[in-house]
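Field notebook, page 409. I keep forgetting to write these up properly, so this time I am using the form the group agreed on. The chain and the ligand, zinc ion, are recorded exactly as supplied. Prediction of the bound pose follows.
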Amino acid sequence: MNLQENLIKYARLILKVGLSVKPGDNLIIRVNEDGLPLCREIAKQAHELGVHHIHLAFSDDQIDLARYEHAPEEAFDSIPKLFADFNEAAYNSNFHLLSLRAPNPELLKSVSPDRIKRWQMTTARAGEHVMKYVMENRVKWCVVALPSKPWAKSVFPDLSEDEAVAALWESIFKVTRVDQEDPVAAWEAHDKGLSAREQFLNEQKFVKLIYQAPGTDLTVELPEGHLWIGGGSQSVSGEKFMANIPTEEIFTMPHAFKVNGTLKATKPLSTRGRLIEGMSFVFKDGKVVDFNATSGKDILGDLLDTDEGSRRLGEVALVPDDSPISQTGLLFKNTLFDENAACHFALGQAYGENHVRGNEMTAEEKKEAGMNQSIIHVDFMVGGPELNVTGVKADGSLVSILKNGNWAI
Ligand code: ZN
Ligand code: ZN
């Protein structure tokens, strides 16, 4: 099958399953230069499905890099309010968000970490109230990825650039089930499997989870009213969508103040244009009180110092070690793929949908309930073939959830 035929199937999957677009919907599409061929196919099919307006939020890696390298210092400390205002107005006008990312994991390698940090803080603060539209599912949103040349080369360093891009496309089509005859039907079946486990986990009403692996001995308490979610999400107006393609995870919110023990990450984290490797943490009463990394420790420190909630967890996610993504044996160096190959946690903001009242509570009530709040949400991987996860119920009984990395339920 050629690339164009697969792009047509990928576009259909993104629109039908990812965003379940309806006549009269509008789209904001975040895209960079490598995403244009796929974006054009998506636009064509979206309009055929009844989409009225598409706003392209276009970016170019070289132009982004030029700004980091040459813009004056003051440019990193403020952002015109009209950017956030535009997005908020769009979300209030039936625009939904599609992020088509062709990531470049080390684009900002040569940029001063101080600039990166300041710009992340500035954009996060300015966009905080707009991020809620996504974090609280007030709009439908979907994140997918496609190869950039540097990303493909970092995953397949021994291949030529063109061969690496082709190999990465092939891997993406495999793990997103685009290589199957009817990807939309394949996703509906996959979603049913995730929903069944979600229901089981919710019925158990676990009070805590115990994580054990080499370098990890961690107890994560779960707040009363937590909800496990796997596969599809539902928007506030009741429409189904799939926030990530691919997704293999079933996730909930940890208690922000009740996580204790040691934790060792099992994969590197690509964030802020840098790669952090060999991360480990010590948690006390929910807070990271000590941490280390074999490389990128400065970036990790900056990340943890972002705000009050950035040293606490906002998400715990279960992914079996035999998931299709894990089976490729590849390290994608990209969170969307690597987080669906392994159990993970996120530092920072918790998702409202992971609590029965998550989208209704005030900030004070959220704190009281144990729901973490932060301007960051950064996933990192802790799963692997040596991880065991045990659930503890209110009566003290134990249920083995993951054994040697795979589902025991
Ligand atoms: Zn997750
Ligand atoms: Zn996450």
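OBSERVATIONS:
- The two ends are 37 Å apart (CA to CA).
- The pocket of zinc ion (ligand 2) is lined by residues 315, 346, 377, 379 (CB under 6 Å).
FOLLOW-UP: compare against the apo run.
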